[in-house]
Design goal:
Blueprint lengths: L6 E3 L5 E4 L10 E4 L2 H9 L6 H18 L5 H16 L7 H15 L8 H45 L10 E5 L14 H10 L3 E7 L6 H12 L4 E4 L4 H6 L5 E4 L3 E3 L4 E4 L2 H10 L3 E5 L5 E2 L16 H4 E2 L2 E2 L12 E4 L6 E4 L2 E2 L9 H9 L1
Parallel strand pairs: 4-5, 4-7, 5-6, 7-10, 8-11, 10-15
Antiparallel strand pairs: 1-2, 2-3, 8-9, 9-14, 12-13, 15-16
Helix pairs in contact: 1-2, 2-4, 2-5, 3-4, 4-5, 5-6
The protein binds 5-S-methyl-1-O-phosphono-5-thio-D-ribulose.
The site of 5-S-methyl-1-O-phosphono-5-thio-D-ribulose has 17 residues, from helix 2 and strand 9.
Length: 373
């Protein structure tokens, strides 16, 4: 397989993203000039993954700020506030987009004009401040992935050795199941859940990575499998429906997933199918973990029942890579994500450690009943 670069900036207004819809067969880039270009590649899923969505949206905004001639700070402020609102409509569940654009929004709101300095130079100053902030998201995600991977692997190995004291200190290799794509194609850096897998491999402790194909969009088969091949990870592709049998046969030591939004009580929205794996893991006494940067935590959302779940178009289920596999007339239900109650999650890793939340609030059924009242 040919190597790829998820995104790159050439000069101030030349930003390119890899067209993930064409992977693994074709490596092709799309140039992003405007916020409309950024919105479209996010909506159409040429790029995806909670951190990457936020990076592409804010880099699209950076292009516009570079290219536009604003007459006053107020004009720039107005533009940014509108652009942020617009970009947020591209995909609703992944909260990184809301959180990172909130920092951009806050920067223009907080910027106060000084009477003694020419406005035009203050405009340039604000633009530079925004460029710096937007560019800093990249490094923040890289560092977050690295840190959560190291501390995640430490905790996972500790949990494993507590569960299997006979194997403690033996450098046992572990078998892991993951879903969707949480690697270099989903975030700057090595990845969240996939970062943990990579770190396990670096330490010589990965026996096998099982990759769920992740229907209907096949991010596992198309993207995670590509990353595994390029990095020469010992990896096996399965269909989503094989996960239960695999666990029943004792072939999974732990499951690790990423997240699109974690509610205050730890309920976690992630790719559709994640909840099923968490239930299966519970039944088979397999530890289930999630890993995310802190930008994925949404303390304004109390529990999973309050998370807005994106519905995707019908054709994503009736067609596979453009080939129709179901009758046109059939009705389709196609939620892009599901919610795993925090009670099913052993640990929630982020770059600063573990997300400590009140899991007694994490009873999905109880919350659901409340929200129906
Ligand atoms: O629909 P997608 O492909 O954007 O869904 C992506 C996921 O569900 C990922 O697990 C999540 O965004 C975390 S990526 C580090």
């Amino acid at each position: 397989m040919e190597k790829f670069q998820t995104f790159r900036r050439e000069v101030d207004d030349h930003f390119y993203v890899l067209d993930q819809l064409k992977l693994p067969l074709t490596i092709e880039e799309i140039r992003i000039n405007t916020i409309e270009d950024a919105w479209k590649v996010i909506k159409d899923m040429n790029v995806r993954g909670a951190p990457l969505i936020a990076v592409v949206a804010t880099q699209g905004l950076r292009n516009e700020l570079f290219n536009r001639d604003f007459k006053s700070v107020e004009e720039l402020r107005k533009y940014v506030l509108q652009a942020v609102e617009y970009l947020r409509t591209s995909r609703p569940t992944a909260v990184n987009l809301q959180n990172d654009t909130e920092r951009v929004r806050q920067t223009v709101i907080d910027f106060s004009l000084q009477q003694s300095v020419e406005e035009i130079s203050q405009l340039q100053q604000l633009k530079q401040q925004l460029f710096q902030l937007i560019d800093s998201f990249n490094q923040q995600y890289i560092d977050a992935c690295r840190q959560m991977s190291i501390l995640g692997v430490d905790a996972i190995i500790k949990d494993f050795e507590e569960k299997h004291p006979e194997q403690a200190g033996q450098n046992a290799k572990l078998k892991v199941l993951t879903i969707c794509n949480t690697g270099k194609l989903a975030t700057p850096g090595d990845g969240t859940a996939l970062g943990i897998v990579r770190e396990l491999h670096r330490r010589g402790r990965l026996e096998r990575l099982y990759i769920a194909e992740t229907r209907p969009y096949n991010q596992g088969a198309r993207l995670t499998a590509s990353e595994a091949v390029l990095d020469k990870l010992p990896a096996t592709l399965i269909t989503d429906s094989m996960a239960g049998f695999l666990m029943q046969q004792g072939n999974i030591d732990f499951v690790v997933a990423g997240a699109d939004r974690v509610a205050k009580n730890g309920d976690t929205a992630n790719k559709i199918g994640t909840y099923t794996f968490a239930v299966l893991a519970k039944h088979h006494d397999v530890n289930f973990y999630v890993a995310l940067p802190t930008q994925t935590i949404d303390e304004n959302t109390l529990c999973g029942a309050d998370i807005h779940i994106e519905q995707r178009p019908k054709n994503e289920l009736t067609h596979v890579m453009g080939v129709q596999i179901a009758p046109t007339e059939i009705e389709v239900w196609n939620p892009s994500f599901d919610v795993t109650p925090s009670s099913l999650i052993k640990r929630i890793f982020h770059e600063g450690g573990e997300y400590e939340c009140d899991r007694s609030q994490g009873n999905w059924k109880q919350m659901d009943a409340q929200s129906l009242k």
